[in-house]
Write a structure and sequence with these properties.
mainly beta, Immunoglobulin-like, 24-stranded antiparallel barrel, 4 helices, 43 strands, about 50% strand, globular
Length: about 750
């Protein structure tokens, strides 16, 4: 440990020198300002962010005639509508006018709201357009985004985005971005056109897509964002400090003047029909036909009631495989539409664990983040195999200051998985300016006497740049072999502070040995967990032509046993991150770790290599580099070396990407772990390949091919998707799993599925 102390002192000294010696202005901004031209925004005085939003007011004008969605903005109504303009940068030159200004007008009629956008650009031939797919990556393309706070509560909203090629992105946002659901899909449309001095977008959002109060006069929160990708520049109509983005609706402007708006009946029927042909271990099964129905009904202007019968998720993309080198369970994200919509309402507490072992540092405590409600426990086995769902219902939304979520799902019996009923109840109340308190109840009932229940309360408080959060939960179960000692509680308390220059986050979590949450994700029991991250953001003016920001930071993640107070895991990370002006970034650092292993565990199923019980102290050193992802060719790589338990590990991640144009992109990700331990040596390999071809904004093909050396399997997931009408799809899916050693086909399935949305 002597070498570790010497290295950490050197890094700490370097941090202090940079803190004291970095030349910058008060806000850490660059000192240069672009020259104005007829297409550039006019200069403006320093911004008072507390009052700027009050000055950003826009009148919505009722259209005097039909609006043709063609990206031309040539109807008389557009000429008569007031214009939102004078966009202001928040990155890279916070507070300065946008390099090229943007002009936005708002119209409405009885059915929809319209946005007419002209994004000025003196060099439209240099526009960056990297994708056409639904919910494209808005960070890697020129684009325009809207946030609509339809209840004008300065907390929640809808996000809509497009790029010069007319790709679409939409999302639900709650609590100013603490919960963002990009898997929400609304009915809306857009047409774009590139001109000699910029590009146009004409956007139509039907009122039936949105939730808002049912009253004659409407005022909504509103903000716009313009991204100029080749300059890696973000600018906003209602100005935002650099540390915030579009989700900060408490700093949004307003759109006023709506008269006589009425939400639609908000009744949707979405039936599906699917047929499957499959082969398992060389034996073809008979073709299967299935059908089901989803129904959505707007109970009030803010509450939506969903019903699902014979639910099917066969079109969902396969999970990205992982190699587990720890003794803890892996976390796989939810991808199924029914559980993703309004999922933010069921979030409990906060995203603990977002910093420990975060960034590109690796390490960490082995998946310490607990989720009280984890929807993948429903309709999926422990191995990730589908379990049939008979049906279910869900009621979600807002009513006044309350957010409500109710879900009930009946799961059928399948193989070794028992028939079960799952219920989740969530209630949250807004308090103060932007804080909330809430409660959650989970209940899982199985055939016979088995049940599992969990009840919890949580609170989230925000005071300017400081967030404080806490939760407490208790489980109730029949005795299922849980430890005789310990408690049945889980708790957390923590804070997060973020300013332009400083970041600080710390918290404590506790999970009892008898805490049993069968509808959640709990990687460890019987522990106390202390975690934190402290760092500074530095913008050195002297290197501003190529370096945007440096982020030296220290993070820790420590687990101790509740039973005897002994140390179980200790992770420390000393990292230095560099963000460059073109969007590329790099990070270097080292991670000292201590692991106390009570029982032997296997880290390679292929070779049987195991880690024996004992206390291990070791350190990893790493370097990471990611080039500009908006370029035609890009790559990311991470190389790490160091001791590993009582042996040694070399790790390489390498991922090249290619984007020929907005239609075709492909990527490869290779993960190699060369590990040598006294119990054995092996090289784990994980290869993930993606190929996407977008015929247009309504027809897509994507392929996900993976190889995992731990189970010696090649897996393929090929999907062809046509959006034949709004929110109505045709899918053709091919899945295959093959043994790498013998080449034997283990399983194959071809699935065709059609959905058809009827909205009223």
């Amino acid at each position: 440990m002597v070498g570790w102390h010497a290295t950490s002192c050197t890094v700490a000294s370097a941090f202090i020198l940079v803190y004291l010696g970095t030349p910058s202005n008060a806000a850490g901004q660059q000192q240069t300002r672009p020259q104005n031209s007829p297409t550039r925004a006019a200069s403006s005085p320093p911004i008072d962010y507390d009052t700027a939003r009050l000055e950003r007011r826009l009148d919505a004008v009722r259209a005097s005639g039909p609006v043709a969605l063609d990206g031309r903005l040539d109807e008389p109504s557009w000429r008569d509508a007031p214009m939102a303009t004078h966009f202001v940068q928040n990155d890279p030159r916070e507070g300065e006018p946008a390099t090229y200004d943007t002009e936005v007008r708002v119209l409405y009629d009885n059915e929809a709201i319209y946005f007419g956008v002209f994004a000025r650009d003196e060099e439209p031939g240099r526009l960056t357009i990297n994708d056409l797919k639904k919910d494209f990556n808005t960070n890697n393309s020129d684009g325009f985004r809207i946030v609509l706070d339809t209840f004008h509560d300065a907390r929640n909203g809808y996000v809509f985005a497009t790029n010069p090629a007319g790709a679409k992105y939409d999302a639900q946002m709650a609590n100013e971005g603490r919960e963002r659901n990009a898997d929400w899909d609304g009915i809306w449309d857009v047409a774009t056109q590139v001109a000699e001095t910029g590009w146009y977008a004409e956007i139509r959002i039907p009122f039936r897509t949105l939730k808002f109060e049912n009253r004659d006069d409407q005022t909504w929160g509103l903000n716009f964002e313009r991204k100029l990708r080749r300059a890696n520049e973000d600018s906003y109509w209602s100005p935002l400090p650099r540390i915030y983005d579009l989700d900060r609706v408490s700093m949004a402007g307003t759109v006023e003047g709506f008269q006589g708006l009425r939400p639609g009946m908000n009744l949707r029927f979405k039936p599906y029909a699917a047929t499957t042909s499959s082969t398992i271990l060389g034996r073809r099964t008979s073709g299967e036909f299935d059908a089901g129905l989803d129904v959505k009904y707007g109970v009030t202007s803010g509450l939506v009631w969903d019903f699902t019968v014979n639910t099917d998720f066969s079109q969902v993309e396969a999970d990205e495989q992982q190699i587990n080198l720890t003794r803890f369970s892996l976390f796989f994200p939810e991808k199924r539409d029914f559980f993703l919509e309004n999922s933010g309402i069921f979030q409990f507490g906060t995203n603990a664990g977002q910093f420990g072992g975060g960034g590109q540092g690796g390490g960490g405590g082995g998946g310490r983040e607990m989720r009280l409600f984890f929807s993948r426990r429903i309709g999926l086995s422990e191995a990730g195999e589908p379990v049939p769902i008979l049906g279910g219902t869900r009621l979600t939304g807002r009513q006044g200051a309350f957010s409500l979520g109710v879900i009930n799902i009946q799961q059928r019996e399948a193989d070794a998985v028992a028939a079960s009923n799952f219920t989740a109840l969530r209630l949250r109340r807004d308090i103060l300016a932007n804080s909330d308190i809430g409660a959650m109840l989970l209940n899982k009932e199985q055939g016979g006497p088995q049940f599992n229940r969990v009840a919890g309360v949580d609170a989230n408080f925000r005071f300017g740049d400081l967030n404080v959060n806490a939760y407490l939960a208790k489980s109730f179960s029949r005795d299922t072999g849980a430890p005789a000692r310990g408690n049945e509680f889980a708790s957390r308390a923590g804070f997060n502070y973020q300013s332009r220059t400083w970041q600080a986050q710390a918290g404590h979590s506790g999970i009892g040995e008898r805490f049993n949450d069968e509808m959640g994700f709990v990687p460890r029991w019987g522990i106390h967990n202390f975690d934190g991250r402290f760092g500074r953001q530095i913008r050195p003016a002297v290197f501003s032509n190529w370096l945007r920001q440096m982020q030296p930071h220290y993070e820790f993640d420590v687990f101790t046993r509740q039973r005897d107070g002994g140390l179980e895991t200790s992770y420390n990370g000393f990292h230095w991150n560099f963000n460059f002006q073109d969007g590329s970034n790099a990070e270097i650092g080292f991670n000292p770790m201590i692991e106390d292993v009570p029982e032997a565990f296997t880290i390679s199923n292929a070779t049987g290599t195991r880690v024996n019980p004992g206390r291990y102290e070791y350190t990893e050193h790493f370097a990471f580099w990611r080039t500009n992802e908006a370029a035609l060719l890009s790559f990311n790589t991470r190389y790490a070396v160091g001791n590993f338990y009582d042996g040694y590990r070399r790790q390489l991640n390498f991922g090249p990407s290619m984007r020929l144009n907005e239609k075709f992109n492909a990527s490869l990700n290779l993960q190699l772990n060369d590990i040598s331990l006294p119990t054995g040596a092996f090289v784990s390999k994980l290869v993930t390949t993606r190929v996407n071809y977008n015929f247009n904004t309504k027809m897509f093909f994507n392929a996900l091919v993976q190889y995992n050396s731990d189970n010696h399997q090649w897996t393929s997931n090929l999907r062809f998707n046509i959006i034949h009408r709004p929110l109505s799809d045709f899918f053709l899916v091919y899945n295959e799993r093959r043994d790498e050693r013998t080449g034997i086909l283990q399983s194959r399935a071809v699935i065709a599925k059609m959905t058809y949305l009827m909205a009223f």
